[in-house]
Input
Amino acid sequence: MKECERLRTDTVALDESAKKLVIIDQTLLPSEVKLLYLDKIEDIWDAIYTLKVRGAPAIGVAAAIGLYLAADKSRADDYGAFYAEFRKSADYLASSRPTAVNLFWAIERMDAAARRFTGGTIDEIKQALLCEAKAILAEDIEVCAGIGEYGLTLIKDGDGILTHCNAGQLAAVRYGTALAPMHLGAERGMHFRVFTDETRPLLQGARLSAYELTAHGIDTTVICDNMAASVMKNGWVQAVFVGCDRVAANGDAANKIGTLGVAILAAHYNIPFYVCAPLSTIDMRIKDGSEIPIEQRKPEEVTEMWYKKRMAPSGAKVYNPAFDVTEHSLITAFVTERGILRPPFDESIRRVKNGSTAKP
Ligand code: MRU
Output
Protein backbone atom coordinates (compact mmCIF):
# COMPACT_ATOMS: atom_id res chain seq x y z
CA MET A 1 0.00 0.00 0.00
CA LYS A 2 1.38 3.41 -0.97
CA GLU A 3 1.82 5.91 1.80
CA CYS A 4 -0.84 8.56 1.71
CA GLU A 5 -0.26 12.20 0.88
CA ARG A 6 -0.65 13.81 4.25
CA LEU A 7 -0.39 10.92 6.69
CA ARG A 8 3.04 9.52 6.06
CA THR A 9 3.75 8.52 9.62
CA ASP A 10 2.75 5.32 11.35
CA THR A 11 0.24 6.06 14.10
CA VAL A 12 2.38 4.32 16.72
CA ALA A 13 6.13 3.73 16.49
CA LEU A 14 9.19 3.06 18.59
CA ASP A 15 12.20 5.31 18.17
CA GLU A 16 14.68 2.69 19.25
CA SER A 17 17.76 4.88 19.51
CA ALA A 18 16.00 7.68 21.43
CA LYS A 19 14.02 5.07 23.41
CA LYS A 20 10.73 6.89 22.91
CA LEU A 21 7.21 5.93 21.96
CA VAL A 22 6.23 8.07 18.97
CA ILE A 23 2.53 8.79 18.41
CA ILE A 24 0.46 11.27 16.45
CA ASP A 25 -1.47 13.40 18.93
CA GLN A 26 -4.97 12.59 17.72
CA THR A 27 -6.64 15.16 19.94
CA LEU A 28 -5.19 17.86 17.66
CA LEU A 29 -6.33 16.35 14.36
CA PRO A 30 -7.35 17.44 11.81
CA SER A 31 -6.00 20.95 12.32
CA GLU A 32 -2.52 19.99 13.47
CA VAL A 33 -0.32 16.96 12.89
CA LYS A 34 1.97 16.81 15.89
CA LEU A 35 4.17 13.90 16.87
CA LEU A 36 4.67 13.20 20.56
CA TYR A 37 7.83 11.50 21.82
CA LEU A 38 7.06 9.85 25.14
CA ASP A 39 9.11 7.77 27.52
CA LYS A 40 7.57 8.29 30.96
CA ILE A 41 4.97 5.70 31.83
CA GLU A 42 2.70 8.37 33.32
CA ASP A 43 2.70 10.25 29.99
CA ILE A 44 1.95 7.05 28.09
CA TRP A 45 -0.93 6.25 30.47
CA ASP A 46 -2.25 9.77 29.97
CA ALA A 47 -1.90 9.55 26.18
CA ILE A 48 -4.07 6.41 26.18
CA TYR A 49 -6.59 7.79 28.69
CA THR A 50 -7.01 11.13 26.89
CA LEU A 51 -7.18 9.46 23.45
CA LYS A 52 -4.02 11.04 22.08
CA VAL A 53 -3.49 7.48 20.94
CA ARG A 54 -6.73 5.54 20.55
CA GLY A 55 -8.34 2.68 18.68
CA ALA A 56 -8.06 -0.87 19.99
CA PRO A 57 -5.00 -2.08 18.04
CA ALA A 58 -3.09 1.20 18.50
CA ILE A 59 -3.48 1.27 22.27
CA GLY A 60 -2.29 -2.34 22.48
CA VAL A 61 0.87 -1.50 20.55
CA ALA A 62 1.43 1.72 22.55
CA ALA A 63 1.09 -0.18 25.84
CA ALA A 64 3.56 -2.86 24.69
CA ILE A 65 6.13 -0.21 23.78
CA GLY A 66 5.39 1.68 27.01
CA LEU A 67 6.01 -1.46 29.05
CA TYR A 68 9.31 -2.09 27.31
CA LEU A 69 10.41 1.51 27.92
CA ALA A 70 9.44 1.30 31.59
CA ALA A 71 11.24 -2.03 32.05
CA ASP A 72 14.30 -0.76 30.24
CA LYS A 73 14.73 1.98 32.87
CA SER A 74 14.75 -0.53 35.72
CA ARG A 75 17.84 -0.57 37.93
CA ALA A 76 16.82 -3.85 39.60
CA ASP A 77 19.57 -6.42 39.64
CA ASP A 78 17.62 -9.56 40.47
CA TYR A 79 14.70 -11.09 38.65
CA GLY A 80 12.23 -10.87 41.56
CA ALA A 81 12.69 -7.12 41.96
CA PHE A 82 12.68 -6.56 38.20
CA TYR A 83 9.48 -8.56 37.70
CA ALA A 84 7.74 -6.81 40.63
CA GLU A 85 8.48 -3.43 38.97
CA PHE A 86 7.34 -4.80 35.61
CA ARG A 87 4.00 -5.95 37.07
CA LYS A 88 3.45 -2.56 38.69
CA SER A 89 3.91 -0.86 35.30
CA ALA A 90 1.70 -3.47 33.60
CA ASP A 91 -1.14 -3.01 36.10
CA TYR A 92 -0.83 0.75 35.84
CA LEU A 93 -1.08 0.79 32.03
CA ALA A 94 -3.93 -1.73 32.17
CA SER A 95 -5.92 0.80 34.23
CA SER A 96 -5.92 3.42 31.45
CA ARG A 97 -8.99 2.16 29.53
CA PRO A 98 -11.23 -0.84 30.21
CA THR A 99 -13.00 -1.91 27.02
CA ALA A 100 -10.51 -2.61 24.21
CA VAL A 101 -9.15 -6.07 24.94
CA ASN A 102 -6.07 -5.44 22.78
CA LEU A 103 -4.63 -3.41 25.68
CA PHE A 104 -4.78 -6.42 28.02
CA TRP A 105 -3.80 -8.84 25.26
CA ALA A 106 -0.62 -6.86 24.52
CA ILE A 107 0.22 -6.54 28.23
CA GLU A 108 -0.24 -10.29 28.67
CA ARG A 109 2.08 -10.97 25.75
CA MET A 110 4.72 -8.72 27.28
CA ASP A 111 4.22 -10.44 30.63
CA ALA A 112 4.72 -13.86 29.03
CA ALA A 113 7.93 -12.59 27.39
CA ALA A 114 9.22 -11.35 30.78
CA ARG A 115 8.40 -14.72 32.40
CA ARG A 116 9.93 -16.80 29.61
CA PHE A 117 13.35 -15.42 30.54
CA THR A 118 13.09 -15.97 34.30
CA GLY A 119 16.54 -17.53 34.38
CA GLY A 120 18.19 -14.94 32.14
CA THR A 121 20.05 -11.77 32.99
CA ILE A 122 18.09 -8.52 33.38
CA ASP A 123 19.63 -7.31 30.12
CA GLU A 124 18.41 -10.42 28.34
CA ILE A 125 14.90 -9.90 29.68
CA LYS A 126 14.95 -6.26 28.56
CA GLN A 127 16.03 -7.45 25.11
CA ALA A 128 13.19 -10.01 25.06
CA LEU A 129 10.69 -7.27 25.93
CA LEU A 130 12.03 -5.09 23.12
CA CYS A 131 11.65 -7.99 20.65
CA GLU A 132 8.10 -8.71 21.82
CA ALA A 133 7.02 -5.06 21.53
CA LYS A 134 8.49 -4.89 18.02
CA ALA A 135 6.76 -8.16 17.10
CA ILE A 136 3.39 -6.86 18.33
CA LEU A 137 3.86 -3.73 16.21
CA ALA A 138 4.94 -5.63 13.08
CA GLU A 139 2.09 -8.13 13.43
CA ASP A 140 -0.42 -5.30 13.64
CA ILE A 141 0.66 -4.03 10.23
CA GLU A 142 0.41 -7.52 8.74
CA VAL A 143 -2.95 -8.28 10.36
CA CYS A 144 -4.51 -5.03 9.14
CA ALA A 145 -3.22 -5.62 5.60
CA GLY A 146 -4.85 -9.09 5.71
CA ILE A 147 -8.16 -7.64 6.93
CA GLY A 148 -7.97 -5.11 4.08
CA GLU A 149 -7.57 -7.89 1.50
CA TYR A 150 -10.46 -9.97 2.82
CA GLY A 151 -12.66 -6.90 3.29
CA LEU A 152 -12.09 -5.85 -0.28
CA THR A 153 -13.68 -9.09 -1.52
CA LEU A 154 -16.95 -7.91 0.03
CA ILE A 155 -17.29 -4.65 -1.91
CA LYS A 156 -17.18 -3.54 -5.51
CA ASP A 157 -16.13 -0.51 -7.42
CA GLY A 158 -18.57 2.37 -6.99
CA ASP A 159 -20.09 1.13 -3.71
CA GLY A 160 -21.23 3.47 -0.98
CA ILE A 161 -19.82 2.45 2.41
CA LEU A 162 -20.87 3.76 5.80
CA THR A 163 -18.47 3.69 8.73
CA HIS A 164 -18.69 4.76 12.37
CA CYS A 165 -15.92 6.15 14.58
CA ASN A 166 -12.39 5.64 13.29
CA ALA A 167 -11.17 2.11 12.70
CA GLY A 168 -8.63 3.19 10.13
CA GLN A 169 -4.95 3.93 9.91
CA LEU A 170 -5.23 6.19 12.96
CA ALA A 171 -6.61 3.36 15.10
CA ALA A 172 -3.80 0.94 14.34
CA VAL A 173 -0.18 1.24 13.28
CA ARG A 174 -0.93 1.40 9.55
CA TYR A 175 -3.96 0.69 7.29
CA GLY A 176 -6.45 0.12 10.13
CA THR A 177 -9.20 -2.48 10.08
CA ALA A 178 -12.57 -1.19 8.84
CA LEU A 179 -10.99 1.39 6.52
CA ALA A 180 -8.24 -0.91 5.23
CA PRO A 181 -10.41 -2.30 2.38
CA MET A 182 -11.13 1.24 1.15
CA HIS A 183 -7.46 2.25 1.37
CA LEU A 184 -6.44 -0.89 -0.47
CA GLY A 185 -9.18 -0.60 -3.11
CA ALA A 186 -8.30 3.05 -3.73
CA GLU A 187 -4.68 2.01 -4.24
CA ARG A 188 -5.88 -0.36 -6.96
CA GLY A 189 -7.87 2.30 -8.76
CA MET A 190 -11.29 1.50 -7.28
CA HIS A 191 -13.67 4.24 -6.23
CA PHE A 192 -15.85 4.23 -3.17
CA ARG A 193 -18.12 6.79 -1.64
CA VAL A 194 -17.57 6.68 2.10
CA PHE A 195 -20.06 8.14 4.57
CA THR A 196 -18.49 8.69 7.94
CA ASP A 197 -20.71 9.27 10.96
CA GLU A 198 -19.30 12.18 12.92
CA THR A 199 -19.43 9.96 16.06
CA ARG A 200 -20.55 12.01 19.02
CA PRO A 201 -19.23 12.96 21.48
CA LEU A 202 -15.54 12.81 20.52
CA LEU A 203 -16.01 13.10 16.74
CA GLN A 204 -13.59 10.37 15.70
CA GLY A 205 -15.52 10.03 12.43
CA ALA A 206 -15.56 13.71 11.48
CA ARG A 207 -12.05 14.47 12.70
CA LEU A 208 -10.11 11.27 12.09
CA SER A 209 -11.80 9.01 9.53
CA ALA A 210 -12.59 11.99 7.28
CA TYR A 211 -9.00 13.18 7.68
CA GLU A 212 -7.34 9.93 6.70
CA LEU A 213 -9.82 9.07 3.94
CA THR A 214 -9.48 12.46 2.25
CA ALA A 215 -5.71 12.23 2.72
CA HIS A 216 -5.89 9.09 0.58
CA GLY A 217 -8.06 10.83 -2.02
CA ILE A 218 -11.16 8.79 -1.16
CA ASP A 219 -14.58 10.40 -1.73
CA THR A 220 -15.69 11.17 1.83
CA THR A 221 -18.93 12.61 3.20
CA VAL A 222 -19.26 13.46 6.88
CA ILE A 223 -22.74 13.02 8.29
CA CYS A 224 -24.13 13.66 11.77
CA ASP A 225 -24.88 10.38 13.51
CA ASN A 226 -28.63 10.96 13.21
CA MET A 227 -28.39 11.18 9.41
CA ALA A 228 -27.36 7.56 8.85
CA ALA A 229 -30.96 6.36 8.50
CA SER A 230 -31.83 8.77 5.71
CA VAL A 231 -28.55 8.12 3.88
CA MET A 232 -29.38 4.40 3.96
CA LYS A 233 -32.99 5.00 2.95
CA ASN A 234 -31.74 6.99 -0.05
CA GLY A 235 -29.98 3.82 -1.24
CA TRP A 236 -26.54 5.35 -0.95
CA VAL A 237 -25.04 2.64 1.28
CA GLN A 238 -24.21 -0.84 -0.01
CA ALA A 239 -22.27 -1.98 3.06
CA VAL A 240 -21.38 -0.87 6.59
CA PHE A 241 -17.82 -1.46 7.82
CA VAL A 242 -16.93 -0.87 11.48
CA GLY A 243 -14.16 -1.91 13.83
CA CYS A 244 -14.50 -3.35 17.32
CA ASP A 245 -12.89 -3.12 20.74
CA ARG A 246 -13.83 -6.51 22.14
CA VAL A 247 -15.73 -9.43 20.66
CA ALA A 248 -17.26 -12.09 22.91
CA ALA A 249 -17.05 -15.81 22.09
CA ASN A 250 -20.62 -15.74 20.75
CA GLY A 251 -19.90 -12.84 18.36
CA ASP A 252 -21.43 -9.95 20.35
CA ALA A 253 -19.14 -7.00 19.54
CA ALA A 254 -18.36 -3.85 21.52
CA ASN A 255 -17.45 -0.82 19.46
CA LYS A 256 -17.77 2.96 19.69
CA ILE A 257 -21.06 4.19 21.10
CA GLY A 258 -23.58 4.47 18.28
CA THR A 259 -22.46 1.33 16.45
CA LEU A 260 -25.48 -0.59 17.75
CA GLY A 261 -27.85 1.97 16.25
CA VAL A 262 -26.10 1.74 12.89
CA ALA A 263 -26.38 -2.07 12.99
CA ILE A 264 -30.12 -1.87 13.70
CA LEU A 265 -30.58 0.55 10.79
CA ALA A 266 -28.52 -1.64 8.46
CA ALA A 267 -30.68 -4.67 9.34
CA HIS A 268 -33.81 -2.61 8.69
CA TYR A 269 -32.60 -1.57 5.24
CA ASN A 270 -31.07 -4.98 4.46
CA ILE A 271 -27.55 -3.61 4.19
CA PRO A 272 -24.68 -5.97 5.12
CA PHE A 273 -23.04 -5.01 8.40
CA TYR A 274 -19.39 -6.07 8.60
CA VAL A 275 -17.25 -5.93 11.74
CA CYS A 276 -13.52 -5.94 11.05
CA ALA A 277 -11.74 -7.73 13.87
CA PRO A 278 -8.13 -8.72 14.38
CA LEU A 279 -8.15 -12.07 16.20
CA SER A 280 -6.51 -10.25 19.13
CA THR A 281 -9.81 -8.37 19.63
CA ILE A 282 -11.78 -11.58 20.15
CA ASP A 283 -11.90 -12.41 23.85
CA MET A 284 -12.79 -16.08 24.30
CA ARG A 285 -12.95 -15.58 28.07
CA ILE A 286 -16.07 -13.48 27.59
CA LYS A 287 -19.17 -15.57 26.79
CA ASP A 288 -21.41 -12.81 25.53
CA GLY A 289 -21.63 -9.04 25.25
CA SER A 290 -23.21 -8.55 28.68
CA GLU A 291 -19.79 -9.33 30.24
CA ILE A 292 -17.84 -6.70 28.27
CA PRO A 293 -16.79 -3.80 30.54
CA ILE A 294 -18.01 -0.51 29.10
CA GLU A 295 -15.98 2.63 29.72
CA GLN A 296 -17.91 5.58 31.12
CA ARG A 297 -16.37 8.95 30.37
CA LYS A 298 -16.59 12.49 31.67
CA PRO A 299 -19.93 14.36 31.28
CA GLU A 300 -18.09 17.40 29.89
CA GLU A 301 -17.35 15.48 26.69
CA VAL A 302 -21.08 15.68 26.02
CA THR A 303 -21.96 19.07 27.46
CA GLU A 304 -18.94 21.27 26.78
CA MET A 305 -16.41 19.89 24.39
CA TRP A 306 -16.53 21.51 20.91
CA TYR A 307 -18.99 24.19 22.11
CA LYS A 308 -18.13 27.82 22.77
CA LYS A 309 -20.12 27.62 25.98
CA ARG A 310 -21.77 24.83 27.90
CA MET A 311 -24.79 23.68 25.91
CA ALA A 312 -26.78 21.72 28.49
CA PRO A 313 -28.06 23.11 31.80
CA SER A 314 -25.81 22.24 34.70
CA GLY A 315 -28.69 20.48 36.51
CA ALA A 316 -29.07 17.86 33.79
CA LYS A 317 -27.51 14.47 34.33
CA VAL A 318 -25.29 13.05 31.60
CA TYR A 319 -24.89 9.45 30.48
CA ASN A 320 -21.66 9.03 28.52
CA PRO A 321 -20.74 5.42 27.76
CA ALA A 322 -17.89 5.26 25.27
CA PHE A 323 -18.98 1.95 23.73
CA ASP A 324 -22.03 -0.16 23.05
CA VAL A 325 -22.46 -3.82 22.23
CA THR A 326 -23.95 -4.99 18.95
CA GLU A 327 -25.67 -8.36 19.28
CA HIS A 328 -24.22 -11.00 17.00
CA SER A 329 -27.60 -11.46 15.29
CA LEU A 330 -27.16 -8.01 13.70
CA ILE A 331 -23.71 -8.79 12.29
CA THR A 332 -23.45 -10.15 8.75
CA ALA A 333 -19.82 -11.26 9.06
CA PHE A 334 -16.53 -10.61 10.83
CA VAL A 335 -13.55 -9.78 8.65
CA THR A 336 -10.38 -11.13 10.25
CA GLU A 337 -6.80 -11.61 9.12
CA ARG A 338 -7.63 -15.31 8.65
CA GLY A 339 -10.70 -14.80 6.52
CA ILE A 340 -14.36 -13.93 6.77
CA LEU A 341 -16.36 -15.45 9.60
CA ARG A 342 -20.05 -16.14 9.00
CA PRO A 343 -22.75 -17.25 11.45
CA PRO A 344 -23.08 -19.29 13.54
CA PHE A 345 -20.33 -17.17 15.07
CA ASP A 346 -19.72 -19.28 18.16
CA GLU A 347 -18.53 -22.01 15.78
CA SER A 348 -16.69 -19.90 13.20
CA ILE A 349 -14.96 -17.87 15.93
CA ARG A 350 -13.93 -20.99 17.85
CA ARG A 351 -12.51 -22.58 14.70
CA VAL A 352 -10.42 -19.57 13.73
CA LYS A 353 -9.22 -18.94 17.28
CA ASN A 354 -8.09 -22.57 17.37
CA GLY A 355 -5.84 -21.90 14.41
CA SER A 356 -7.92 -22.84 11.35
CA THR A 357 -8.54 -20.43 8.52
CA ALA A 358 -12.11 -19.34 7.94
CA LYS A 359 -14.21 -21.42 5.55
CA PRO A 360 -14.27 -19.76 2.12
O1 MRU B 1 -12.59 5.56 21.99
P1 MRU B 1 -11.80 5.16 20.79
O2 MRU B 1 -11.60 6.25 19.81
O3 MRU B 1 -10.52 4.45 21.16
O4 MRU B 1 -12.73 4.07 20.08
C1 MRU B 1 -12.26 3.44 18.93
C2 MRU B 1 -13.24 2.51 18.33
O5 MRU B 1 -14.32 2.32 18.82
C3 MRU B 1 -12.78 1.75 17.12
O6 MRU B 1 -13.85 1.52 16.26
C4 MRU B 1 -12.19 0.41 17.57
O7 MRU B 1 -11.21 0.62 18.54
C5 MRU B 1 -11.64 -0.37 16.44
S1 MRU B 1 -10.12 0.30 15.86
C6 MRU B 1 -9.53 -0.65 14.60
Observations:
- Residues 51, 54-57, 100, 165, 167, 171-172, 176-177, 204, 243-245, 255-256, 322 surround MRU (CB under 6 Å).
